[in-house]
Specification:
Chain lengths: 342, 342, 342, 342
């Protein structure tokens, strides 16, 4: 059983059904009747007027957002462990034409107004240093923590004071919302977020993420950047259809809730091993190599995150029945090894 | 009935079936068992060792190829009517970091060694001018003409003599091969092509094109560029599966042959109206606005290409029965209007 | 005697003197007392508030201006024979991060509202084509013609209507002004120019050009771009001093007038050979290879511009006494050969 | 008396004299007889065949070198306090088209094989992370320490093993050599350096730095990049002349030795205040705000580097007589305050 990554999970049935339904001739690119619905559907979901674009990957969503918020000679503050810094092969630099990521710290890959301010205050206000133009936060974070509306609002206030745009990488936005139970608006535009990468792929989609602009003026140039990056697929209706299928009947919430519940099951099996609280669908556990080998010998697959630490990710389609054996195996390991960290 | 663009056609059944079959957990990105087959499958098809990458759009395939062949300070010779010049919103400049497209001429959007040499010879060999590094040709061309192996080989020889890389935009490569009847190898690497954008989307695919490197050394850096551009989709197996499904049993050839046959049917209806010979699935006809309006009133949809000229594109799934009414309507228009060209 | 290029002329005495005078310790970069005067001095010259930056080359001035006026996904309309297209090795593409130069036509390398409109109208207003954001004209043009205030104003009006920024490459702006006799304001901001590359190097300077922003809001980001391009020299006072020395006592006008007068002398020697009217310091003459060889045998050096055509450029320091022998030698050639054009 | 920066010092007499001597007509750009000597003169100095280009700034030299060593999708390892990271406004990212600087640590801004290896080992070898392609070290470092030949060779060996190019930012290379007393070759190519930014401006030049390629194959494309960046000044002979004047009679060594001696004088005044050993012309002293204010009241100017720490830089033209008063004033401050560090 794989707990390696939600990236690799299967696609959920409503998405496949919607793609089959879209399998008829329509206008190319985003001129079709599915794509045409995105603005309205997301405006309804977010209780405000937004512009919503499909893109085929989370990296694309993130980097189009950053390019909209930061000029080539600017910088984006992000966490040292952010996906945009570590896992996108320099895509932010490519899309922004060489803007700099300036790294800030915080436990659980979560930024705070203080850690952001510290990063900002380290920059001299002269032409010799790259000046900050935006902040990017990830919700849920790379370690599975959800920013609350209050936490985002505090950062949003700082951004507003300092003239910075605020981007949210929501590759696991659905998991964050499922945990928080708040309105999607609360943790985004009401808290100062200008652009959101709203992830669907990890949550049961196939190849479509939504890039949401709460600052709708940013959308116009992004349409050109999307095309210019080879991201404007000619049969875009199959992407729009995926997203719409997950909005219909709140499939996105249900899938995320299921994955979160699975993670909670694993967390409950070894509370003393948890490196971080489990709020989304990721579980980071302290585990010796021998223990990890033992679990693998039982057929469980997962990621060695760091020395003495493993990552388990639960996907939308992993049932309690499928997860329980792993939970039991973890519980059977006994007490956690000593904390190994730097 | 739409004859607007093959870009907008439905996806063919084997592709949908393959995607459904791929709907199981596997390794993310291109670590899955479908992606792993591409090199071998295309090596077999092309009778030589190639490297083959899936990408989600033709623009992406073209521009990754150009970035592999041309440095930021170089230029790519292409036809004035090439898709990379006119229809990709500057994607070549984005991917190459500012290389220049240098435009050459030729009837039917087809380059010749002579027109390429004329473009090359207009460049002073000094640091004040952008020096040529590559040539890009489109097969079938934007006007539906196929380069023969001999024509490509003549260009390939020139490229070799001048130290230029040769790229082929094969958005309708299948249609060209269906027309030429030659081995895919003949019109590509045997004729000097280093990289091919092998199109599947217009020919019945959904969201996967293949980028083929005959010069396999070019593939390595391209893997990083693909990721860096947000093109490395996490559930890549659904893209690989599309391509494999079209290679299986030569679906790609059958689809292209069907579309070409449909175009031939239309061409036969009005030989005196043809702006170009019909070799692939595109038909350019001289037609007055009144005539075009008449056809539209009958329910036929197509593109006004230029004053007095329309473009009809036949898709893989348009049957003879569906096409014949249009052919009859065209034939019924009577003799062609006078040629209107600049 | 060289009539090859004003690029290679000596530096005029007031410039050298000013540089010697600046040879004392002051604040680095542009924090010195010379650099601090530029805004005011150019504001006075142009009779309006401007922002003025020194840069070490005309290419740098041009391309910083273009980067201020055109986003990476946009295009700049310029003449097919413009320096930015032909002689800057892709610097516009480098500085703009891949914007496109869209080429327009016009005799003498001069654009008109009509030729610009023709270029604009060839662009479909959709995301598949690179949209125009700016126009760049050269005054005096690459063929030594001066745009009059009325000509620039007509272009300025078009730019204003179409939402385009207007840049003037004034590598030989001084020569244009010396010919026109108008106020510098008339042919720039009063006619809609947003940014001017004001050349000093060809006109007796050493290594300093002025980039003038009439649209002063464009200056701020340019300060960062200048630094980021390695153009913010640490001992900037020597550049500022050069420019101030040429503004003092209107040295820039006197130098340009002298060069123009020299060119007029040559033009008068062979009015039937002139390819273009001589308005600045460049003279293009029809001349057979044998005739050109004859002149070279007499010790005159110049550029073979095109088959049957040579270019003579007079520099600020070439006296009438030095020029007259060439004028006489040209006159002695007799009547012009037949026009040779392609 | 200013001890703020050697960036702001006057130009030394031989340089001015050489510029005056160059004030005659010659071929433009780098076709003149001064520029033509650079390869040979630096090849002699470095005892091996090199390619040497003038550029107008140290940032330009550094970033052209980095662009030659690192592709857009790569990274350069440098010290956290390196000039390229902190003081060039993202010029490395601009010139490399978005490569990443990956930061390593070490006291005195000096890298070691161990600190570089630690940075390298933090990078997963997959397409999701930006892979290292080069290392850049600064000699003398930003804190005035000189890398010895053995130290550079140890880094060079690591670079060679890992397939990385090695760049040396030698903005104060002369000061390093004056301290080390070794052959310039020893601390550069003999130790694995592929490209050197050889600084002249801080050491008595005006506007010319030399970019030296020991890996001569890197020079060719750099010629295009230099032009493309607007750095190929048309009257390049004045830059070449500056450099040649400083090579003649070893002016560069004498100037650097003088500055180093001045720094040593200051260091000797307060050995207990030194934050770093003084090896070049920079002196970092622990100093309370009150003490610093006292010195300033006496007419001395310098940089507040960090809380409780000031930087004094001695320039080539500051005589012992000019420096001694500051040395005495520092000595008169009495014992150093407690170390203040974060």
């Amino acid at each position: 059983m794989r707990f390696f990554s939600d990236n690799a999970a299967a696609v959920c049935p409503p998405v496949l059904a919607a793609m089959a339904e879209a399998n008829t001739l329509d206008t190319a690119y985003d001129g079709d009747r599915w794509s045409a619905q995105l603005d309205d559907r997301f405006s309804a979901l977010f209780e405000t007027e937004v512009r919503a674009l499909w893109v085929p990957s989370g990296t694309a969503a993130n980097c189009l957002a950053l390019a909209a918020l930061c000029p080539p000679h600017g910088s984006v503050i992000c966490h040292r462990d952010a996906h945009i810094e570590n896992d996108e092969c320099g895509a932010p630099e490519f899309y922004t034409h060489g803007a700099k990521l300036r790294l800030a710290d915080g436990p659980g890959a979560k930024l705070t107004p203080e850690s952001i301010a510290a990063a900002l205050d380290g920059v001299r206000d002269d032409v010799h240093q790259v000046q900050p133009h935006a902040v990017s936060i990830t919700n849920a974070t790379e370690y599975g923590l959800a920013y609350t509306p209050a936490e985002v609002a505090a950062i949003g206030t700082l951004c507003s004071e300092r003239g910075l745009g605020l981007h949210m990488d929501g590759a696991r936005f659905a998991n964050a919302i499922a945990h928080l139970g708040c309105a999607p608006a609360d943790v985004t535009w009401r808290s100062g977020v200008a652009a959101l990468s709203f992830g669907f792929v990890k949550n049961g989609g196939m190849s479509a993420e939504a890039l949401i602009f709460f600052d709708t003026a940013l959308a116009e140039a992004t349409l050109y950047r999307r095309k210019r990056a080879g991201l404007l697929l000619s049969k875009g209706r199959y992407l729009a259809a995926q997203i719409l299928a997950m909005l219909d009947g709140d499939v996105w919430r249900a899938n995320a809730a299921a994955a979160n519940a699975g993670a909670a099951l694993l967390a409950a099996a070894a509370p003393d091993r948890l490196v971080y609280p489990v709020e989304a669908n990721e579980v980071f556990l302290r585990m010796s190599p021998a223990e990890a080998a033992g679990l693998r010998a039982l057929g469980f697959d997962f990621y060695d995150w760091a020395p003495g630490e493993v990552r388990l990710v639960v996907s939308w389609d992993q049932t309690e029945a499928a997860i329980r054996p792993l939970a039991q195996a973890i519980a059977a390991l006994g007490p956690s090894p000593q904390l190994v960290t730097s």
